[in-house]
């Protein structure tokens, strides 16, 4: 697959990369090689192969989320170290904008 400099700059912009011209040249060449390899793989006939989403056989690797009570002495020690608290709660700065 042939990529021109404008396409490489556009891909870099989409990836939020600020590339210098020599970096664009280097990474553009590497990207061309990757795309050529993927194009080579697309020539393989896979019509008889069963589609696969994952191969490990795992169905669910997550543990159940359980709330466990915190020992009172540990909770008191943590609250004692908190710079800003409200009752038994530790106040923190907002991390999400509304």
Can you describe this structure in just a few lines?
The chain is about 40% helix and about 5% strand. The chain has about 100 residues and is mainly α.
Name the shape in a single word: flat
Strand content: under 5%
The CATH homologous superfamily of the domain at 5-41 corresponds to Glu-tRNAGln amidotransferase C subunit, N-terminal domain
Enter the CATH topology name of the domain at 5-41.
Histone, subunit A
Order of helices and strands: HHHEE
Described by strand count, sense and barrel closure, the largest sheet is: 2 strands, antiparallel
Classify the secondary structure makeup into a structural class.
mainly alpha
Enzyme class: ligase
Organism: Candidatus Falkowbacteria bacterium CG23_combo_of_CG06-09_8_20_14_all_49_15
GO molecular function, one term: ATP binding
EC number: 6.3.5.-
Which features characterize this protein?
98 residues, asparaginyl-tRNA synthase (glutamine-hydrolyzing) activity, Histone, subunit A, single chain, two-stranded antiparallel sheet, EC 6.3.5.-, mainly alpha
